[in-house]
Amino acid sequence: MRNKILLAISAFIFTCIGMTSCLSSEEPVYKTDARILGFGLDSVFGKYYKFEIDHLLHLIYNRDSMPVSSDTVLDSILVDTFSVLNYALVGPKDSLFDAEVRHDLRGAINRSGESGISFKVTAPDAVSTTTYYLEIRVHKQEPDSVVWRQKETFSAIPSTGNIKAVTVGENLWVLTSPGKAYRTSVETGAFGWTEVNISGLPADADVTSATVFQNKLYVISADGDLYESADGSSWNKHAALSGGLVTLLGTVAANKEYNTLETFCAVRELDGKRYFCATSDMNLWTIGAVVPENFPSRNIVAVHHASSTGLSKTVIVGMPHTSKEATVPWFTMDGTDWANMNALQNGCPALDNPFIAFFNNKFYMYGGSLENVYESLSGIGWYKIEKKFTLPTEFKNRTSYTIAEDKYHAMWVIFGGNGSENEVWRGRMNVTAFEIQR
Q1: What is the tens place of the pLDDT at every residue in 411-425?
Q2: Nearby residues of 420 by Cβ (< 8 Å), 6 or more positions away
Q3: pTM to 2 decimal places
Q4: Of 59, 73, 89, 356, which sees the most CB atoms within 10 A?
C-alpha cells in the first residue's frame, strides 16, 4: 500500500514538471510586469518614509507628509527601497535609474502627475513599459506653529462681571450673564454671531461654571443647584443632581476597552465636607474621596488625554492656585478621586485663570497676563516655549478673558467683561489642520 502511495506522489511530481516544461516554451505572464513593487526613502531627519504605490493612477506618494525643511535633505538622498522586475528609466532624458547613488528629488515636492519626477519601468520582456510619477508630500507649514487671527466681535460685553466660553458640537457659546449669551458656528464659512436671550436661570447662576456634557450645557447656582440646557436658551433645574454643588469639573471620556461610560464630574458639599462626585446616567451622584483643601474651585478648564495604556484621563487647572509658586494640574481616571501633578522642579509658573490644552502629543498651558506659553510631555515638568507657539503681542497684560477649544482643536480667546474691550481671536496649531491624504 505504501509503495502505491509513493508511486502516485512521484507520478504527480513528474506530471507537474512536464507541464512546466511545456509552459516554458510560452511567454509567462510575469515577463510583462512593468510595475514598481516597492519605494522608500532613506532617513529624512531620522525617519524612514515608505511610499504608497497606486498602480491604477501610476502614482508613488507618501501618506505621512515630511517636515517643512525636507528640501534640504531631498536634494541628495538615497532611494533606500526600489523594487522592479527589470529596470527603470528616470526623468525626461530616460536615464537609467541607479538606487545605489544619491538623487536630487526636489522636483517631486508637492507635485502631481506629469509635473513630478517620472519613472519609466521596463518589464522583463524588454517591451512592456509603465510610467509612474513620484509625488513627495511635504508640509507647507511648521506643524507645531500656531496661527492666530482676529475674528469679528459680537455686541459689547457688559462692563462688569465675568464671562465664559464653551463649545458644544459645531457651536461656540459665550455666556455673559444669566440672561444673555452669544453663539457662532466654528465651521469654515459659517462664522457669525447670534445674540441669545436666556430664560430659566436664576439671577445668581454662575455662568463661569458652564460645562458641557453629552451636548448639553450645565451651570450651578449660588445655592448649589444644577441647571441644564439643550439649546443654550431655555434652562431648567436638574432636580435629581441639585443640592450642595460647589464646582463643576468637566467630564471623563468613555473608554470601550475598559468598559467605562462618559462621566460627568463635580464637587459636592455634604455635612460640612466637600467630596468629589461623578455620574454617568445623570440620575445619581457617586460620592468619592474628600476634596483636598488646595484643590481649585473656580475657573476650571479640563482637557482629555489617553494614557500610554489607552485609559482615558481628564486633566484640569483652575483657581485658586494649589501652590503659590506654580500652576498645578490635577487628573482623574473616573471623577471620584483626583491627584495633583505637582512637579518637584520645572513646574509651570503660577498663572491666574490658566488654560490647558493637549495636542501634538504635548500639554500646553498659558494664562495670567498672556505673555508666555508653557509645554509639557507629561503634564508635570513644564518649559517655556520660545518660538512657534507664541501669543500675539495684542494679548499682553490683558487679564479679562475666557478661552475655549473647539472640536477642531482651535483655541478661541474672548476678551471682555470687567470694563475691558471686547475682542475675539482664533488660534490653531498647524498640525491639527493636517489630514492624511488619499
Answers
A1: 999 998 777 788 999
A2: 398, 399, 400, 401
A3: 0.71
A4: 356
